[in-house]
Fold each of these.
Amino acid sequence: MENDWRWPVGTRTQTNSQIAKDRNRFIVGLARQGFSRQRALAAWKMLTEQPTATTHTVDDNALLDYEKAARVLLVSKGTLENWVSSGVYGVPFLKIGGRVRFRRSSLERWLQSRERSSDRQLVSAATASPEVTKCL
């Protein structure tokens, strides 16, 4: 009976095999859009996570450790540690008592500031390079 676990989705229920098929379709769809398998799995988990009685409201000023901050950014804990130690992407963090902490609101603002569109990238490339300006 353990394999016959059912998860309610709207008014119908799904078996484990149906959920696995949906998950695989979702991951393949994101892979076609250029997402890594790890990021696609993290997105799937976020979308299918069932709220529980212990679920708390999101506090924007809450201090997060590496693991929770990495989940917010959809990267691994090791990747986030590398970004912070190298300073390569300018991830905002606090150092409290020798420990690194992150504010959720700061991480979300940082993500928004890194958002790019193809038009914006083209404009910034054209202004940075005189050769590209000649071609335009």
Amino acid sequence: MDLTTAHIGINCASIETSMKFYVDILECIPLLRTHSLKGMSMGYVQLPGGSILELIEDPSGKARESAMTSNNHIAIRTNNVDEFAEKLVAAGIPIEVGPFRTDIVIDETFSDEATVYARVSESGTETAQRFLFFRGPDGERFEIMDDTVV
């Protein structure tokens, strides 16, 4: 049996506002929009790299309240955190924290595939990454990470 990620669902107050944000700021490809599931409005966008986000319209505002108190987040890899920060500032989107650098000591790896997630030093015991965090239009939290600084 093969398992792969189909999509990640995110509640939003407005499909139009959210799709514009995901396309303009995160450079997503808009895929489709539907109202077919019990009258719910949903939009689908594809992140660079292939992951698909399902935007589920919830105009009640409850999704925003929940998102603002959660550490749940979507992490997106870039090769230039500072350039992405400039893009956010130019768009008037506040940066919650960062950019900052963190040196991480790896306690244990479980697979040679671990290097797909985090580029590690030649000794295989540490990595250095740069991050920033910001919020989307409905309070959803994003982490932008650059792990090319080993």
